[in-house]
Sequence to fold (168 residues):
Amino acid sequence: MPAELIAFTITRLPAAAVVGQAVHYRMGAPDGNPLPALWERMAKDGTLTQLGALPTRILPEVWIGWMGYFNPVENSMLYLAGVLVAPDTEAPAGMVKEPLAETAYAVGTIRGTIPDVFGDAYPLTQMEAIRQARQLHAAAGYAMEWYDSRFKFDEEVKVIDFYLPVLG
Fold:
């Protein structure tokens, strides 16, 4: 099932941070997509349990896939699998922290099957933001996948939110 945009909103989030484990991801690389293996490893080695128990965690039912440090020459980015936490939270040993300033986001709710639900989330959200005359906040330099109770591992069709920083 191709991915589709099923809802679109503009929301503002307060300052926070994403804490978790990261991997450098080269899109289209011949060795494949390392992101599913990252999440699986974190589930098996207890990292997700550790992140879930952080006392400064914001929104206990939400998991974040943060993408930033895009390199167009290498067609690569840093992908951080983790949780939202209070801005002053220290990253646990072996983990990475990315601060998030208070900002507005274009939020696309995307429904589809893997891999389309992930691959189409950015362009679907971006196109709708532009259609609604929202200016992308390119200087922010990141985007986020937002996983909550609507993302069902045992169902073929997945639902995620895609957060894209916008101005205003």
Helices lie at 35-44, 47-52, 116-119, 121-131. The mean pLDDT is 94.
